[in-house]
Amino acid sequence: MPRTSKRKSAPPNSSSVTSPEGRSVSIKAKTKGMEKIDRLFNSYANNSLGMIDPDGIEALCSDLGVDYTDVRILMLAWKLKAERQGYFTQDEWRTGLKALGVDSLSKLKKALPELENEVGKSSNYEDFYSYAFRYCLTEEKQKSVDIESICELLNLVLGAQFHPQVDLLIEYLKISFPDLENYDASQAWPLILDNFVEWMREKHS
């Protein structure tokens, strides 16, 4: 007859075993967080489209206290991986807000400075720059952007990052900016600079 072992079995390792109750709480917390994200989405979404449209984004900007053309909104679109300019789908919204770790308007507002810092990292900035260009391609099979739009985009995307360099370039060229009164078109300027000056004068005329 085999002997019965009197050794007591080792208690389960509490650090590696999660109780059903613990798993249930975790699932409920995630579900609740997603529900809050969805409620925030629905407060700005166009019900007939099932997505946030330009009017919804404008309302979101107003509630966040930022301008519609603020670069941080473009950064938010980048974080959401939004594919269509001026529109956020629910899946994009969920993915982006989950990545930001926010589920309310107040948290989203607080996350904007952190998002700026994230984009400012060299490892992310190139991707953001490329995304910004693609985001401006509003037509199917469009591969280029008109001069006025690209100038606005470059000012938006590069402005905060490269203002010191731009200021030094203007100082070096000895061109009064933004009035451009002392610009001499007869000088041997690169064509791109001539085009830029012409665009600036038309813009401010």
Describe the protein in words:
Residues 11-21 have a biased composition (Polar residues). Helix content is 61%, strand content 2%. The chain is an all-alpha fold. It has two domains: 25-121, Recoverin, domain 1, CATH 1.10.238; 143-205, no CATH class. A two-stranded antiparallel sheet has the order 1-2. α1 crosses α4 (90-100) and α3 (71-80) crosses α5. The radius of gyration is 26 Å and the shape is elongated. The mean pLDDT is 79.
Annotation keywords:
205 residues; mainly alpha; Recoverin, domain 1; 2 domains; two-stranded antiparallel ribbon; 2% strand; DCN-prot; ubiquitin-like protein binding
Average of pLDDT = 79
The CATH topology of the largest domain comes to Recoverin, domain 1
Task: Tell me the radius of gyration.
Answer: 26 Å
- Name the strands of the widest sheet in spatial order: 1-2
User: Can you tell me the CATH architecture of the largest domain?
Assistant: Orthogonal Bundle
Task: Determine the CATH superfamily of the largest domain.
Answer: EF-hand
Secondary structure class reads: mainly alpha
Largest sheet data: 2 strands, antiparallel
Helix count from the secondary structure assignment: 8
Q: Spans with pLDDT under 50 lasting ≥5 residues?
A: none
CATH class of the largest domain: Mainly Alpha
Number of strands: 2
Please estimate the helix content. 55-70%
Indicate how many domains the architecture comprises.
Answer: 2
